[in-house]
Design a protein that fits this description.
Glutamine Phosphoribosylpyrophosphate, subunit 1, domain 1, Rossmann fold, 3 domains, binds 2-deoxy-2-amino glucitol-6-phosphate
Length: about 625
């Protein structure tokens, strides 16, 4: 999730843009850059690291210009470094672009442009886009506004872009699809940004660009907006009411709630470009060179910590169930010290949101020393774990600011599902019809995540009932046993209520002694293989006076008669239920913690990334 800031007017653009980029620091990033012009050529200043590193780099450079565009990059294509930082230039250096989003078909466009003689200096999809705009502008002999519009008709993916042109300090062109862009309207000046945070101190009059719209922002004229199909649109001017702080959280009271509600888009972004729209086959570019190793693997050893370890447990069920590969899931902190046995055809897979967790990094280093192939699933491009692994797959969850992991977990499970389906397909351990059914369900999963989030109000009411309890039990079976563990972790780490997750059948081996009316139980009882057995576990709990919160498949009537509270999720294959059942548990933990007055985004004693032992 990158940050975009642009300015055009009669003031110096540099300080306004730098301050705007600092306002967007909450979005997380790994490099920053700015393009400025006084009407002649374009000066581009960019640097790996923070905005402060860019300021230090720019201190003795030409920073003049009343038009400028600035960018903070959260890498998706190409590791974080100066050459991959935005802005990017066209081949002739006359155009500069900043971009937030993912161009899915950039490799085919890059091949076409290379055949026409274009040369590229970075690994990014963004540079391909500005070369495409240059190619079309020169070929069609048209103005920049039209060249951008025509180019975007060739693009598949998500984008928020701002493009400026050498020799034109009066206007820049902006466009969006799938990534936000806000235009601030001042007195003979315009501002543009990914959200209103950098704009609100200058003007409260804003226009939100809609998906598929292209804008010509000229400081001497009224805003001109068209769709990429060339239909004129009248800009609708909003007056901003939100505070700066609430804008950073997207209007939510906490980053954690914002990130829970971002899951429809973060799951969509993680799947984007990884299911071929025509063939419906799974394409994981980062693992292409290791597909054979994965299909021939004797065992996959997953190493992770915390929430990522729970995602790894779901990976175990997926890889064994679908791809018939034995899996072992290890706490990285244990694995690294127990002199583990790693055989030649074993593959070690690390899962880490931050890519910096010390125990997971050390476990990987041990596996590497023992000659193992090491793969990774990370959310931070260019992180230590990502750089250490032989190959891997990035989750495109965007920065996760809340210490309690939510959207990172769901996108890790989405990647593991894609990996298991890919290997199962290659090995022939899944029938074509089952494969196609699951792909179809995956393509709908973002809508179903959206549906589950609609239980938000009900879950808040349930939370009010249980906010003062001292203990909680979470039960699940099969694919939802790890979800029970994750639900318990979420509750304890942000509300400080003690909670334990168990396989539902394990109750009778001890924990059932804990059950009484003071011990609420969350049970995941979705329609799946061992549903009837879960129902009998529920009856055992009820017989002992336990109060029950059940997560069920919509339309369930059996559990509804037994449970005190029921939260429904849409029907889906058993393998995909964790992508949905974990969401009500995130919301339950969030609301209980808020009602207990806990610091939800920064819980006591916790760090977002445990980079020490
Ligand atoms: C989960 O909510 C916690 N933030 C914590 O358990 C976390 O999952 C763990 O520290 C692993 O972090 P990583 O995914 O960045 O490696």
């Amino acid at each position: 999730m990158c940050g975009i800031v642009g300015y055009i007017g009669d003031k110096d653009a540099y300080p306004i843009i730098i301050k705007g980029l600092q306002r967007l620091e909450y979005r997380g990033y790994d490099s920053a850059g700015i393009a400025l012009s006084q009407g002649s050529d374009i000066t581009i200043l960019k640097q790996k690291g923070k905005v402060s590193d860019l300021e230090e780099y720019a201190a003795d450079k030409n920073r003049k210009g009343t038009i400028g565009i600035g960018h903070t990059r959260w890498a998706t294509h190409g590791v974080p470094n100066q050459k991959n930082a935005h802005p990017h230039s066209s081949g002739d250096g006359k155009l500069a672009i900043i971009h937030n989003g993912i161009i899915e078909n950039y490799d085919s466009i890059k091949r076409m442009l290379s055949e026409k003689g274009h040369e590229f200096t970075s690994d990014t999809d963004t540079e391909v886009l500005i070369h495409l705009i240059e190619e079309i502008k020169n070929h069609e002999q048209c103005k920049l506004f039209e060249a951008v519009r025509l180019s975007l008709n060739e693009v598949i993916g998500a984008y928020a872009i701002v493009v400026m042109e050498e020799g034109n300090k009066e206007e820049f062109i902006a466009a969006r699809k799938g990534s936000p862009l806000v235009i601030g309207i001042g007195a003979e000046e315009y501002f543009i940004a990914s959200d209103a945070t950098p704009i609100i101190e200058y003007t409260r009059d804003v226009v939100y660009l809609e998906d598929g719209e292209v804008a010509r922002v000229n400081r001497n004229e009224k805003l001109e907006i068209k769709t990429i199909s060339n239909i004129r649109k009248n800009p609708y001017i909003h007056e901003l009411e939100m505070s700066l702080d609430s804008i950073e959280k997207g209007g939510y009271p906490h980053f954690m709630l914002k990130e829970i509600f971002e899951q429809p888009s973060s799951v969509l972004d993680t799947l984007r470009g990884r299911i071929n729209p025509e063939t419906k086959e799974v394409k994981l570019g980062g693992l292409m060179d290791y597909e054979q190793k994965l299909t021939k693997a004797n065992r996959i050893i997953i190493v992770a910590c915390g929430t990522s370890w729970h995602a790894g447990l779901i990976g175990e069920y997926l890889f064994e169930d679908l791809a018939r590969i034995p899996v072992e899931v290890e706490y990285a902190s244990e694995f690294r010290y127990r002199n583990p046995i790693i055989k030649e055809n074993d593959i070690v897979l690390a899962i880490s949101q931050s890519g910096e967790t010390a125990d997971t990094l050390a476990a990987l280093e041990l596996a590497k020393e023992k000659g193992s192939t090491i793969l990774g699933i990370c959310n931070v491009v260019g992180s230590s774990i990502a750089r250490l692994t032989d190959a891997g797959v990035y989750t495109h969850a965007g920065p996760e600011i809340g210490v309690a992991s939510t959207k990172a977990f769901t996108t890790q499970v989405a990647v593991l599902t894609l990996m298991a389906l890919k290997i199962a397909r290659l090995k022939g351990t899944i029938t074509t019809s089952n494969f196609r059914n699951m792909i179809t369900e995956l393509e709908m999963i973002s809508d179903n995540v959206e549906k589950v989030l609609k239980s938000n109000k009900l879950i808040k009411e349930v939370a009010a009932e249980f906010k003062n309890v001292q203990n909680f039990l979470y039960l699940g079976r099969g694919y939802n046993f790890p979800v029970a563990l994750e639900g318990a972790l979420k509750l304890k780490e942000i509300s400080y209520i003690h909670a334990e997750g168990y396989p539902a059948a394990e109750m009778k081996h001890g924990p059932i002694a804990l059950i009484d009316e003071e011990m609420p139980i969350v049970v995941i009882a979705t329609k799946m293989g061992n549903y009837e057995k879960v129902v009998s576990n529920i009856q055992e709990v009820k017989a002992r006076g336990g109060r029950l919160i059940a997560i069920v498949t919509e339309g369930d009537i059996t559990v509804k008669e037994l449970a005190d509270y029921v939260i429904e999720i849409p029907e889906c294959s058993e393998q995909l239920t964790p992508l949905l059942t974990n969401i009500p548990l995130q919301l339950l933990s969030y609301y209980i913690a808020v009602m207990r007055g806990c610091n939800v985004d920064q819980p006591r004693n916790l760090a977002k990334s445990v980079t020490v032992e």
